[in-house]
Specification:
Elements (H helix, E strand, L loop, with lengths): L7 H9 L7 H4 L16 E3 L5 E3 H4 L3 E4 L3 E4 L8 E5 L4 E3 L2 E10 L2 E10 L2 E4 L3 E2 L11
C-alpha cells in the first residue's frame, strides 16, 4: 500500500480488503488536549435569584446502607420512626448533624445523616468511608 492520503471511508475499505496494513496517513490523527489534574471549583456557586449553593450540596454523593436501619424524623432514636431502609439501599446525604450517640455496624457515633426532609439515619449504618463529617452540617 502506498502512503497516499486517504479519507476515513477509503481507509476502512482498504483495511477491510486483503491488505490489512495501513499508514498513519490513512488512519488520520487526533488533536491532543491538556487536561489539568485539579479543577478549581469555587466554595460557593451563585444561582438565580441571588441564592447561593455550597459546593458540597452541588456534588451530592450516594452511600450504601450497611444494615437494616430505622429512618427517624430527627437525629435520635426518641424521634418518630418514619421509615426503614434495608441493607444495600443507597442514600444521598444532604447534611449531617450531631444527635444521640448510637452504636451500629460501623462503630459508635453521634453523627446523624439527613437523607430527606424530616428523614435521618445514624451515620453508623451508612458506609461513608469516614468516622467524621462527609457533608455540610445541617
Amino acid at each position: 500500500m502506498s502512503s497516499e492520503e486517504l479519507t476515513m471511508p477509503d481507509a476502512i475499505d482498504t483495511l477491510a480488503g486483503t491488505d490489512t496494513t495501513a499508514t498513519a496517513d490513512a488512519v488520520g490523527t487526533a488533536d491532543v488536549i491538556d487536561v489539568p489534574d485539579v479543577i478549581d471549583v469555587p466554595d460557593v456557586i451563585d444561582v438565580a435569584g441571588g441564592a447561593e449553593l455550597t459546593v458540597e450540596a452541588a456534588v451530592a454523593r450516594r452511600y450504601a446502607v450497611v444494615a437494616d436501619v430505622n429512618v427517624r424524623s430527627g437525629p435520635g432514636t426518641s424521634y418518630a420512626k418514619v421509615g426503614r431502609l434495608s441493607a444495600g439501599a443507597h442514600v444521598t446525604i444532604s447534611c449531617q448533624k450531631p444527635g444521640e450517640t448510637v452504636t451500629g455496624p460501623n462503630g459508635t457515633s453521634k453523627i446523624w445523616d439527613r437523607i430527606g426532609s424530616g428523614r435521618y439515619v445514624s451515620d453508623t449504618y451508612v458506609r461513608t468511608g469516614s468516622d467524621g463529617y462527609v457533608a455540610p452540617r445541617c
